[in-house]
Fold each of these.
Amino acid sequence: MDHDYKKYEPIFGAWEITEQIGSGSEGQMYRIRREDSLKHEYFSALKAVTIPQNGEDDIKSLMAGGTSREEVEAYYEGFINKAASEFDLMAKLKGNSHIVSYEDHEIFKHTDDFGWDILIRMEELTPLVDYSLEHPLSTEDVAKMGADILKGLVFLRQYDIVHRDIKPENIFVAPSGDFKLGDFGIARIIEDTKTSLSRKGTYSYMAPEVYRGEAYGASVDIYSLGLVMYKYLNDGRLPFMPKYPEPLKYGDREDAFIRRVREAEVPGPRNGSEELKRIVLKACAFKREDRYKDAAEMLFDLETLIYGDASETAKKLKKEQDRRKKKGRRMFFAVAALVAVVGVIIYFAIPKAVTAITGLEPITEMYMGEALEPEYSVEPDWFKDEPITFASGNDEVFTVSDEGVIQAKDPGEAVLILSAREFTEQVVIKVVPKVTEIKTAKDSLKLVEGESAKLKTELLPEEFADEEIVYTSEDESVAVVNSHGGVTAIKAGSTVITIYSGGCTKEIKVKVREPKKEPKAEDKDKSEETGTSGSSNTSSSQSYTGTQNQSGWTPSNNSSSSRSSSSRSSSSNSSSSSSSSSKGNGDEGWFSDSDDEYFD
C-alpha cells in the first residue's frame, strides 16, 4: 500500500522529504532536510509508519474472527495510546552511544479513512546491510559490533526492555564507526498491530522459545545477536545452510531454520579465533540455560578477547552480577520452605493452562491439491472442548479453514499456527508435487509443415501415472498441440511445447520447416530426353520420402501418390529404408500414427 507522507510538509515545522532510502515490514525510511536562516542545510532520517499497515485488509482480517468493526477500531486506538508511552521511553534513552537516537515524532489521524500515520525523526546512519556490502566485516569488526550492541542491550535492561527483533536490518553504523541498535520501540508497536495471518516475524534470527510461543526473557536478544555475529563470521551463511561458495537451492533456508529450532547442535562458524567462536556458540545455544545469562556477562568475555582485558564498565557490570548471584544463594535456603508452601497454594488457586495441541507432526508433508482433516486435541484433558483457531503463514502454499481442514496448494513450506486460550503451537506444512518426472524419449522435435503426430508421455512415480496432463504451445502459429498430446505443424519456425502434470513441468523444443519443392516440368523433360527418367523419379521419391520421415512422424499428406506403380514401389522401399535410418539417427520417441504399439 502506497502512502503519501509529503502532504505533511513542512514536517516538524521545518523539514521536507528529499528521497526514500529504505522500506520494510516496519515502515518506510526517508532522508529529510531543513535549511536555517543562513542557508545552512541539515539532514536527518525519517521513519514513517501507517497503522493499520494494510488499511482495510487488516481490519477485515480481524473482523473475520467474529469481531465487530467498532471493537477492531477500539483495538487499534489502544495501540496508538501505547505508542505515546513508547515514545516517552525512547526520549529517555536519547543520547546513548549505542542506541539510535530518537529526536522527535508526530502522529496524524487520517481524515479520509480509518488509521494513523506516525512520523519519527532519528539521526541519519548507515544500515549495517549496506555498510557491509561496501566494507566487508573482518573478524575484529564482528567482535566490535557484538560488543557495541551488547552495551546498548545493557542500557536497555535498565528499563526492562527486551528488543525481540535483533537482525542486521536493525543495526546501524555511525560515521565514527560505532555500531548502534535501532527500532526497539517502533518494532514492538508495529508487531503488536499485525494480525495473526500477517505476523510472520523474523524467523532467521528468532530464538527457539519465541518460535514455539513459550515464555521468554532477555536471553532471546543474546541468541539473536549471536546469530547475527555467526552469519558475518560464516561468509554470510546462517547455521546449517550450504557452505560458501556452494549455491543456495530452494528450501535450503527453511531446512536450516527447522534444524536450528529442533534442538540440533549448531556447528562453529568458518572464520574467527577459537575463543570468538566459543563466545558466539554460547550466545546462540539451543537451551537458554546454556547461554550467557545477560548482556553484561557476554560483554565481559568479548572485551577481554578484544583488548586482552575487559573495560572498567564491563568489569563493574560483571562484579555487580556476581554480587547478585551470591546474594541470591544466601537467600535461597531462607525462602525455600516458604516457596514450597506458596507454590502448592498457587498451584490449586490459579487456573491450569493449555500445554499442547496435538494432531499433526512437527513437519507434515502433503501433496499439492490434497486436503487434510487432522483429529486435533487440546491437552490437558480438561481443556479438550476448548476451541482452536487456525492460521496459515502463507496462503499461496496452503490454506486452512476455521475447522482446521488444510488444503495444499503450491509446492513450498509454510507455518501453520494453532492457538487455544493463551497457548500457541506452530507446525511446518511442506507441500510437494505429485509428479516428480515426466519421461519422453527426446527433448526436441523436427517436423515438416502439415505433419502431425502424437507424443507418448510417462508420469513418475507410477501411483500418479493417471494424473491429468496439460499440453500448451508457446507459439501456436508454428505448431499446435491438443489435449491428448497430438502436435500439428502449421508453418516454418520454432516453438516450445510445455507438458505439465501434478506440479512437474517439461519442455519440448519444436522446429518446423517447409517441405522440399517438386522438380520443375522442364527438368522432367530434360531427364526423359537423357533416358534417365526411371532412376531420376525413383531418386526423387526416395529423397522426398526420407525427408518427410526424418523426425519419425508420419506425414498427413502424400505428395508422391501420383507417381507410377513402379515409382511407388521404389519409393515405398526407399521410404522404409529412410525411416529406419532416421530413427537410428536419434529421433526415436516421436512416433507416427502407424506405430500403434507406442500410442498412449
Amino acid sequence: MAHQDKFAEDSINELTILQSHRKPEESIDRLTYEIKNLQIIRARQEAIIEAFDGLIYVCSADLEIEFMNDRFVERTGRNPVGEKCYPALHERNDVCPWCVNDRVQAGQTVHTEVLSPKDNRYYHVINTPVYHPDGSISKMSMIRDITESKLAEQELKTSEERYRKIVEDQTELLCRFLPGGTITFVNQAYCRYFNRHRDSLVGKDFIPLIPETDRDKVFDNIGRLSRSNPVSTHEHRIIAPNGEIRWQEWTNRALFDEQGNIVEYQSVGRDITDLKRAEQALHQRTEELERSNKDLEQFAYIAAHDLREPLLAIAAYLKLLERRYKVNLGADGNKFLAGAINSTLRMDGLIQSLLAYSRVGNEVQCFERTDCNRILDTALANLLSLIEESSAVVTVEDLPTVTANPSQMLQLFQNLVSNAIKFAGDTPPKIHVGVTRNDNEWQYFVKDNGIGIEPPYFDRIFLLFQRIKNRANYPGTGIGLANCRRIVEHHGGRIWVESTPGKGSTFFFTIPDRLER
C-alpha cells in the first residue's frame, strides 16, 4: 500500500518542506488551507488515473515498479509493485532493448507504438517523467490499446493504395478540381493526353484547356450539380497540345462536406473525337440515303404511273381487235391475241403492284387506332370469290386494336391470306389467323397447309420480283411479299416465315403496341 501511495508521500513531503520554512507566527488556518489544496490535487490525480481507459504504471530510475493502476492489476492478475519492471511485465532477465528510461530520465516525453508479441495487439505508449521533491525522476508509462484504429489505418492505406493503382491504371482521364476550377489531382492518363507533367497541371486552372465557345456550357453543367443531383455527363471540345480541337465526354461528380457545401469535383473523361466524326459521317450518309430513296420512290411512282397509260391503250386496242376480227383470225390468231391480252393485263397488275409498293414509303403517314378484326373482315370480304372458288376454310382469333395505317394493314392481311390460298397445292386450303403478345408488341401469324417453302428461300421471297414457283401454275407479280415487308417495317415491326416443304407455312409479323405515333 505504501508503494501505491507514492504520489501521496510526495505530497506530504512537500507539505513538510513548507512547514519547515514557515515562521512560528503563521496561523493554523494557512496550514489547513495547504492541506486541503493538496487533497484537491490528489483527488484530481486519482480522477485522471481512474478516467484513463488504458494501463498506467510508474517505475523508478532503477526500473522498480512504484505504482500500477487498477486496470493494469486486473490485466496482469497481480500487483507487482516493488518488483523490477522487465521481469514482472516482460518476463525478461535483463533490461528491455526498447526501454526509453534513459531518455525519460533526461527529461524527455517519448511516444512509441509497439506490437506486443504476447497478444499480437498494437499499443500506443507515452513515457513521461515524474519529478519528485528530492530531485529524483520516475518514469510514468501510459498505455492504450490502439489495435482497432491501427488495423483501420492499415486498411485505409491499403484501400488508398488500391484506389490509386486503379486510378493510375485507367485509360480514362481523371481529375479533381476545386469550385473555382483549380486542379487538385490528375492521373497519368490525363497527363499523357495533354502531354504535360503533373506538377504543371496541379494547382492550375483547367479552363484554358477548353475553347472559349464551350466554356459557358461547361460552367452551366457543373453549376447544376447539387446534393439531389450530384452527377452529370456532358460533352465539350478541348484544345489538344498540338492545337487540334478534339471532343471529350466528361462525367462530373460533386463532393460535399458535412454541411452540404460542394468542396471539390471529380471528373472522369474520355476522348470521343472518332465517335463524333463517325456520327457526323453517318448522319450525312443517312441524309444522302434518305434523299436518294425519296428520289427513287418518286421515280418509281412516276414511271409506273406513266407506263400504265400506253399499256392500257394497247390492251384496249387488243380487245377491240378481238371483238371485231375474232372470227377472221383463226385458231392460231386467237391464241396469239389471247396471249397478248393476258400479257398486257399481267403487266398492268405488275405496274399497279409497283405503285402500291412505292406508296408505302412515299405517302403521308396516317396512323390511327385500328381494329384489326374489322380490317381482316374487310380483307376476307375482298377475297370472298377466291375463297369460295378454292373451298378455303379461314379461321380467325380475336385480334387487338393497334396504332397503324388502316389501308396498309388491309393490304398486308389481304396479301398474306391470298398468298396462302394461291400456294395451297392439291388440298383445300386451311388458313388460321392469330396473334400472341410479346413484350411491347403484338406478334401476328397466318398459318396454312400449303406446299411450303424450302429454307434457302425464307429471306429471298421478301425481295422484289422473286418467284420460286412456276408462273403458269402459281400466277403473281413477285411483289406481294416484298410489299408486306415494306408495310411491316414502315410500322416498326418485323416479318419472317417458318415452313416445312409439303406441310405448310406460317408467316409471322410484329406490330409495336403504342398509343400514339
Amino acid sequence: MDFERGVKPQGFHYVPSRTMDEKLWRERKAERDRTLAMGAFVPAPTQDRHELVRRGHMICPAFLVPKKGKTNRYRMVINQIPLNRLCKARRIRFQGLKNLRHAGQKGCWAFTWDLENGYMVLQVFKPHQKYMTVDLGPSMAADGEPISASNPRYVLCNCMPFGYLASPWYFVKTMKVIQEELHKRGVTCQMWLDDGIVLCDTRELALRHRSIVEEVLGEFGLTRQKTKGEWEPTQDLEHLGVGVNTAAGVFYVTAQRKRKLSTEAKRIVCSAKRHKRWVGARWLAEFAGLAMSTHDAVAQCAHRLRPLFDVLAAAQVWLYGYGQQVRLTPAAFGALQWWIDTMRVKQGNTGSNPGGLAEMPLNKVSPGRPEAVLNEESPNTQLEKRLMEKPPVGKQPCKPIWRAPVTQVITTDASGEGAAEAPGGGWGATLGGAPLNRVRPDRDNGQAVRGIWAVEDRDLHITPKELKAVRYALEAWRVQLRNRHVLLWEDNQAVVGILRRLNTKSPGMRAELEQIIDLLEEENIVLQVRYIKSAVNPSDWYSRIRDKSEWRLRYELADRLLHYFGTAEVDRFADSALALLPRFNAAYPCRGAETVDAFTVSWEGTHSWVNPPWNHIGRVLYKLWHEPAAAATLLLPVWPSAEWWPLLLRLATARVSVHFKAADIVPGPLMLPDMTPEPLMNSGWRLQLAYVPPRRQTPWSRFSDSVNTGTGLAGEWR
C-alpha cells in the first residue's frame, strides 16, 4: 500500500456517526461466516480493539445494504473512507466502449464474459492486511456467544476489498497480464475491470477464440460467471449496460434500460406534481446517474441531464447532503419529459430521431420484418427474438460504433471586431472550400457566406458568437448538407468541446445548442467537429493543429529507417514542416500536401512511410488490411496490450526495435512549449519499425495457422 508522502500513519478505529444495521445482526453474521469460509476474511490476531490500534491496525466499520430488486438479500459494504484519505491516488486507463472501433469491424461476431468474485481473486500482502481491519460491530455477540477467535468481531481482509482506493488500479494491472496473453494467442480482447469482450470476423473464429479464452482463464486460476455475459457468439449483445449491435454497427439503449428510465422519470414527475415540485435530492441524483450510464448510446445524454444537475447544484448537495428536498425548475420538468418520450417504445411511432448529433437508425426495415436485418448465413436467433419482441420503429436513440466517411466539409469563423462597414464584427463560413482531395482551399473552390452581428449580439463573448456562426452556416446550407456526414473545422476549442459533448453549463449557449441539435435531427446530418488554429485570411486558410502527435525523427535516424525495408515513397501523416519525403499527406490543408486526410485515398501500389498519431494506429492497420496491394513501413510503439496489437502481428512480416534518445524526437515548430511528444510522455515507451508487404494473403488465413503453431510473426524481432 502506498500512503501519502510515503509515511505509514498510526493505527486508528473509525466509529461512524450512526449504526445502520444493528438489527440485522443475523444477516451480518451469516455474511461474515460466508466470507470467512471462502477465505475473503481471516480473524484478527486479537479481538482487543486497543491492542489492535497499538499494533498499527486501521479499523474501519462494515454495514449491510439491501440488494436492489431482491428481498431479504443484503451486500456487505466496508466504509474505508478514512483509509482512502491517507492513501495515494493512482491514475487508471480504462478500455471503454469507444475502444471497440479498434477491435473489430462492422458485421463481426462477439461474445462477453464476467469473472467470478471480482476483486477477491487478488490476495492482500499479509504484512499489509492490518491496514484493512474490519469492525463487524458488537452485534456479533447478540446471540449470547462471546466475541472470540471462533466468533470474531474484528477480521482482516485477505482479499482485495471493493472499497479500497487503489483496488481498481491493482485489478486493472492484473487483468492487463491476462489481456496480453490473449493477444499473444491472437485473440482481440478488451477488458473493463472484470468484464471482457472479444470481437471476431466469423462465428467459427469466435468459437475458436472462446476456447482459447476459457483455456487462458483456467491457466490463471480464474473462472467466469456462467449466469452473466453473452458466452454464445452473437451480433447483438449487452456489454457494460449498453446494447452493442455489430450487424448495424451501433450502440443502443436496451429495452430493459429504456423501461427503467421511463418508469423512474414518470415517478419523479408525478411525485413532483403532487408535492409542489419538491422531490428528494437523492432520488433525483440516482436517476441522473442511471441516465448518464447511457451516454455511449445517447448523444444528447449530458445535454438532457444538465437541468437536473443545475437543480442539484443550486441546492448545494455537496455541502448539505442528499437527504434534503429540491425543487424542480420548468427546464428540469422538460428534461424529464424528454427522457419519458425518448425511452418510450410505441408500436407505429415514427417520430424524429431522438438520439441527436451522431445517431443513426437502428435498422431500416419496417415493423413486422425484423429478419431483414439478420445475416442470412448466421442463425442469430437471439437478435431475431429481441426484434420480434420490440420491433424497432422509426429511429431509436443510438450512436455509431464506426464513423462513416466524411462527405462534406464546412468551416466557420466569428470575429468580435469589424471594419467601419461591419461594426461589432461578423461571421463567415465556407462550404466545400476544403474538399478531402484538394491541397489548399480558397475563395474560388468553395461557396462562402458571411454576415454581421445584430445589435443584441455585438456584446456577446466570442464563444457564443462562434456557436451562433455554426448554426448560421448549417441553416444557410441545410439543403446541401441534408443526409450528409459533415466535417466541421472550428477554431474555438470551447465550441469544439460543446459540439462534441453536446453539453454546456451556460444557459444562453444551451438555447443555441438546442437549435443546432433540432436542425441536425431535422436534416439527418451527422456532424464531426475538429479544431484548427484561427484562419485570418483566405491565403492562409488553416494553420496546423497543435497536439502531442506532431513530431518526427531526427533526419539522420529517419533516413536510415526510410530505406530499411525498401525506399518509401509517400509520408502519410505529416505536414509542410515535418514531412520526411517530397510526397506527403496532411491532416488539414497545407502547402505541398497531396491529400488532406490520408484515410480518404487508396494506398495501393505505393510504399508508404506511416508514423501516425497513436490514437489512429487501429484505423491505419485496418486500412492496410482492406488494401492488400499496399506496402507500408510503420513506426509504432511497442504496446502488447493495445487493441490493435493482434492485427499488427498478423499483417507485419518483420519488426525491428528502434533505439532512440530524447534528442532523436523532434517536435513540430508549432507544438506548445508545455506539450511533450508521444514517445517521451513515458520513459518506458519503446519504438519499433514494422513492415507490411504488398500482395499478402488474407490475414485470417495466416492467423489460423499461427494459432496452431503458437507463433504470430513471420519476421525477425530484435
Amino acid sequence: MPTLRVARGRSTAPEFRFADAAVIGRADDCDVRVFDEAASRHHAVVRREDDGYVAVDQNSLNGLYVNGRRVERHVLKTGDEITVRNLTLVFIAEGATERPTVISERLTIQSRLEPVDARLGGEDEGLVGRLAAVYRFASVLNTPPRQRRAAIVAALEEAFPSCAVALILPDGNVGTFSRSVVDHARGRKEAVLVREPRVDMPGASSLVAEKILSAMAAPLGGFGALYVHRAQGEAFEAADLELLTALANAATPCLRPADAPPATAAPVDEMIGASPAMEALRAEIAQIAPTAATTLILGETGSGKELVARALHALSPRAQGPFVAINCAAFVENLLEAELFGHEKGAFTGADRARAGRFEQAHGGTIFLDEVGELAPGLQAKLLRVLESREFHRLGAAKPTRVDVRIVAASNRDLKRGDFREDLYYRLSVVSIHCPPLRERAGDVRLLARAFLGDRTFTEKALAKLEVYDWPGNVRELRNVCERCGVLARGDTIDIDALPLEIRLGRAGRAADPGKLKTLREMEAEMVARALEATEGNRTQAAKLLGITYPTLKKKIDELL
C-alpha cells in the first residue's frame, strides 16, 4: 500500500497507509486530519485512478499544493510533497524503499556542461533560477560593512523582482514592511508565508489596508528579518519561502550585532539572574525538560512561571512542535471548555463553523495551563480524563479526539487546599517546580533592573531602595517600575526621586511576622504610605487623614526618605 508521511506540520499520526483513497481535511472523519482553521473540512483526496495515484483538490477555498505549486489534479510519484495549509505530506508509492529528494528528480547532474535551455524547462528553470539567486546573494555578503546593507537589499530585489523588500535590524530598517508579519517571524524564529492576508493574518491591518496580495518574512537569528511582499500578480508559494529562508540563513552571520545572543542560546539561558535560587531553577529545568512528565509549576504572581514553561518546551524533544498557552482564569466556564476542547458547527449559538481547541492546536507539542487552580469543578473532571487517556470530545461532537501533548500547568496558590480535586492535583504534579519569589533572589534585582532599562541606569541610591523592597508582584512589578521610571525620568541616569513612593518609603509588600515587633520608623512609613495610597498621592488630603498638618507630613516624608 502507498504511504503519506508527515514532513512538516502535524496530524494524528506520523504516516498513513491506504489502499484506494485517503481524504485530507479538517473534519473528524478525514483519514488525514489537518489542524488549521483555514483548511476545508474535506480539502483534498489522494486516490487510485487509471494513470496511478493522483492528488485531487475537493473545491477547497485555499487550494491544494504539490511541490509548491497550486494544482487541481496531479499524478503523484514517490517523493512528491502534498501541502494542505500547514501540513505537508510526502507520497511514497507501494514498494518504494526510500524517498528521493525533489531536487535530484528535477536536476540531473552531468559531467559536462550543456546549454541550460537544451535540458531544462518549466519547474527546472525555476529551480535553477532560485539556485542562481542564492549564489548571487551570497556574493554580496563580502561587501564592505558600510555598503553591505544596501547591497543585500539590492540582491533581495533582484531575487524577487516586482516586489517590495525590507531588511529589519535592531539599529535601523531599510524599506517598508508589515510589523505583524515581521514580529511573527522574529518572535517565533520561524519563516512565515501569508498567501491571503484577510484569511491567514487578519490582524495585519497594513496588509489589508494597502491591498497587499501576499507577504512573507524569514528571521535573521531572532534579531532581525528579511521581508518581501507583492501587491499584484500571483501569491507567493512554498518555493518562494524556501528561497527567502535560504537567503536569511546566509545573511545572518554577517549581520548579527556584536551584542546579540547567539542563535543557539537555550531559553533557559535567557532567564536573568545569577542567584543560587536561579541556578538551582535552571538545573531543575534542564533535568526535567527532556522527559514527557506532566509538570506543575508553583510560584507567586509575576515570578516567571510561563517563562519556565516555555523553557521546558524549548529544551524538550517537542521543541519543533507548537507551544500553546492559555490562562484558565481569563474565561468563564462555558467559554473555557470551548476554548480548551473546541466545538463543532452548530454546537451552540454563534458556532457558525467548527473550531479546533487549544489541545488540538498543541498536538505534537506542549500546552501550558496557567492558573489551573481557577478551573471549575466540571472542567477539572474533564481535564482529569484528558490526562489519563489523552482523549476528549469537542462540544457537539460524537467521536472523541485523541491528541499527543505534554501538559504543563501553573498556579499561584496551594492546590491542596480549597475545592481543587485531589486526584487531579496528583496527576498534574508528577513533577513540581517552584519558582522562587524575587525577594529570595539576592542580587538579581540589579541584573533585572539593568536589563529592563536598556541604555539607562539607576543610581546606587535608587538600586539600594529597589533591593530592600519586598516586591509582592515579583519580576512583573519590577519590570513595570522600570518602564514607569524610563517614561518619567529625564536623562540617562534615574535617581531615587523617580521611584514610586511605596518603594522610596520601603513599605513592606505583605504582612510582617506577627511575632516580630516593628520599629517606630517602620510603622510611620507604613501609615504615611497607606494614607498617600488612599488619597491617590494627594498630600493635603493624606495629612488630614493622618490628623497632622501638611508641613508635618512633608517633614515626615523627607525624614523617611
